[in-house]
Amino acid sequence: MAAGRRLRCLSPACLFLAVAVAILAMPGLAAARTRRYTFNVTMATVTRLCVTKSVPTVNGRFPGPKIVVREGDRLVVQVHNNINNNVTFHWHGVRQLRSGWSDGPSYITQCPIRPGQSYAYDFRIVGQRGTLWWHAHFSWLRATLYGPLVILPPRGVTYPFSPKPDREVPLMLGEWFNADPEAVIKQALKTGGGPNVSDAYTFNGLPGPTYNSCAAADTFRLRVQPGQTYMLRIVNAALNDELFFAVANHSLTVVGADASYVKPFVSNTLVISPGQTMDVLLTAAAANPSSPAAYAIAVAPYTNTVGTFDNTTAVAALEYAPGAALSSSLPLPPLPLYNDTGFVANFSANFRSLASARYPARVPRSVDRRFFFAVGLGADPCQSRVNGTCQGPNGTRFAASMNNVSFAMPRSTSLLQAHYQRRYSGVLTANFPAAPPVPFNYTGTPPNNTFVMHGTRVVPLGYNATVEVVLQDTSILGAESHPLHLHGYDFFVVGTGFGNYDANNDTAKYNLVDPVQRNTISVPTAGWVAIRFVADNPGVWIMHCHLDVHLSWGLAMAWLVNDGPLPNQKLPPPPSNIPKC
């Protein structure tokens, strides 16, 4: 063949290949990959705060390994349970479109993985990019079984904000218990009182120097270069505490939340609830020999609880010079008071979706089903049948509910399995109330009767129904914030306010243009929040408080979303290796 000549192929097969190559070369349209991870759940010895103990871990690491995928990828995680506890894993915030069998909450979408058993979670990442996370979803095992889930944009697609980060750093905020967290919640459920609180907050598993001499060596250090920009992928993995977050002498630019981009805004202090994630830009200052070699990164709790809480401050280091001295005397960034609800409301009001051509905010403008859920604490009477004591308020036992129904977990099967087999009898009832059975002054003087009902009640929804839920905090046993997480869906936060929700006046103030899109939202202390979503994902999806003590007391409900008419709108059969109850 003469030099410089090219072969030409005009057959249909060649033309198809040429078009396919051209399409795959376009930004964002490269072929998705299957990413595979293995989780070996084992006990490992960990020392924090001078206390050495054995804790559940994934692959012997605390926190667990980072998972990295790109939007559009398939993710397969093979879990082998080698501890003496049952376990499941939840991929917090992943939409799980038609893959509800991999969502992970125990007895909701699967039975637990028993000791010695294995299970493969298999799902795709669709229409999401940013930071999510994974954690155990059985009892309080997520105290140590958690890690980041980073979703990068497709290859060739850039971030819609600037400056572009020079480095990305997952930052998991957690809680450390010197005691066994499983023993802590078991004791609380036995006594009917509140659980013992954690002993420290942590950055990527490390408490820092503010606690004791042992903790000083266990300090997370973020080494930075002057002038460079860092994207902190922040996750609140704490069991029971919303947290303030700040870096001394540095401002923070929020660019994402719950794996959705937001209109960038600047703040010196963040507040982040359990379950929530934020992508935040931090630009290191220009080189200056007279500047400190390190700055404190601090977290402290936000709460209005009338009970006890971990009122400590944890510190990490932002280091401009390696090995910089760090002590408890390092100047801390100013943080709001622990009960500064006004700051929390002002900060939360900054969140807006991009609502751009590439990343539109598809907010439901009309609503098919409206719900009003009163959310809060309550009580169970002290009865002789209770195998324990009654150390709750006024000789009762603590409980929690939505619309006065405290959620009871099934035990004989999972709700999703019952739904797939259409065997509901004895497992669930489709009569969760759309509004409180007895209306009252939700944020005023509480009613005399604070006892709750119990049941495994769900709300059935038709496929593609548009849904609005107003979540109303109550003052029963004290008004406080409740971070509510919805599995299987993102939702738009269309309105919020303080006091009792007023449909006649508050609906007109909704933001239907660029509301933030999230999977976890805090119901304001003595206030309300309104969310909207489209029920386009068939299955059974739990919505619950992400303060684990409240979930343990029953602050949850479930949506049962029926199949649509088309094949791609139906729940597939369960995997053959799904655990049995």
Automatic annotation (TrEMBL):
- For this protein, the Enzyme Commission number is 1.10.3.2
Signal sequence segment: 1-32
Spell out the subcellular localization from the entry.
Secreted, Extracellular space, Apoplast
> What does the record give as cofactor?
Cu cation
GO cellular component, alphabetical, reads: apoplast
Write down the InterPro entries for this protein, in alphabetical order: Cu-oxidase-like_N, Cu-oxidase_2nd, Cu-oxidase_C, Cu-oxidase_fam, Cu_oxidase_CS, Cu_oxidase_Cu_BS, Cupredoxin, CuRO_1_LCC
The top EC class, named as a word, is oxidoreductase
The main place the protein resides is secreted
GO MF annotation list: hydroquinone:oxygen oxidoreductase activity; metal ion binding
Task: Give a GO biological-process term.
Answer: lignin catabolic process
Where in this chain does the record put each Plastocyanin-like domain? 41-154, 168-321, 432-563
Reactions catalysed:
4 hydroquinone + O2 = 4 benzosemiquinone + 2 H2O
Which Gene3D superfamilies does the UniProt entry name for this protein?
Cupredoxins - blue copper proteins (2.60.40.420)
Q: Which UniProt keywords apply?
A: Apoplast, Copper, Lignin degradation, Metal-binding, Oxidoreductase, Repeat, Secreted, Signal
**Cofactor binding mode and count:** Binds 4 Cu cations per monomer.
Biological function: Lignin degradation and detoxification of lignin-derived products.
Per the record, the similarity remark reads:
Belongs to the multicopper oxidase family.
Q: What is this protein called?
A: Laccase
What organism, scientifically named, is this protein from?
A: Urochloa decumbens
